[in-house]
Amino acid sequence: MLSRIASVAAACVALFAAAESLRQAADMRGIAMGTAVNARLFSEPAYAATLIREFNQIQPENGMKMARTHPDKDRFDFSEGDAIVAFAAKNGVKVRGHTLVWHEGIPAWLAKGTWKPEELRAILNGHVRAEVAHFAGKVYAWDVVNEAIDKDGSMRQDLWNGKPGTGAPGTYGYIEEAFRTAHAADPQAVLFYNDYDSEVANAKSDAIYAMARELLAHGVPIGGVGFQCHLSDASVSREAMSANFRRFADLGLQVQITELDVRLPVNASGVATISELKQEGTIYFEVASACVATPRCSAIQTWGFTDRHSWIPHSKPGFGAGLPFDANYRPKAAFTGLMDALTMKQ
Ligand code: XIL
Predict the structure, then answer these.
(1) How far apart are the first and last CA of the chain?
(2) pTM of this structure
(3) Is 62 in the pocket of ligand 1 (CB under 6 A)?
């Protein structure tokens, strides 16, 4: 028996070692290897080829955000999401939806208007219902609420929760309501709460954990928690991340890495030093292996995949080089870090 187990284990190791792409390794591991995408880039041959070869899950970087999908009060535009869903179907990859309720990416008509709480509540529910219903059966998981908690663990004061707010009852009023409305529109979709700077135990992740427990106690249909992982070159520890992820998994929730990138200081041409790139590889390995080591961690997703197209240089000038492929689609140490984690023996 023992020798049989040993030979099966050896065969698995051999299989993993034979993986030629992240996608193959992820398929063997039974994990989703995802990336954020922009539909306008599908026409760039190297972009499409790398995407199809390396990933088995895609998520619109911006195409399903409210500002895009709900441009006027009484008009929806799902065209970019539809293009991404069609690309995914053609290439056999799954689609993760992002994001229904957020303090950013709000359409101008909503941001500029003056609303009574009951009006905002109707707008929130109408938006969630329409978008989830449109993509029902095509999007397997949604970030229902994104970034609702502040660094110190308090609820973010924003359009939905503040002045005036939606007036939905309870501590997590609008959050509970958004999850219930999304679930009614697509009972099959796995519904996530998603946030950043919550990868290890801290005031923010403690607050997310307390919220997740309370939502579950109230019968709110939350199915997972997303950890964005927008990281810098500061070291991270697999053990600290895994311990944090595990407490969420122990609640029965899925855990997913949703927006992994590592911003590095770069020169005027966008180039980072060799030692920084090596450190980036180590960070990718630590994050991905924390997921591999956590029960119910079902996806590792990067925020784009090539340094040619990344939000980092725009949002943080002087930084870049944060993704697994360089600007010419060559794999970096970050790619090797992902691959090593996906193919490692447990
Ligand atoms: C970012 C996009 O990458 C940018 O292109 C856009 O201008 C702003 O939003 N957390 C999130 C993502 O949940 O939706 C954000 O995406 C990055 C931070």
Answers:
(1) 20
(2) 0.95
(3) yes
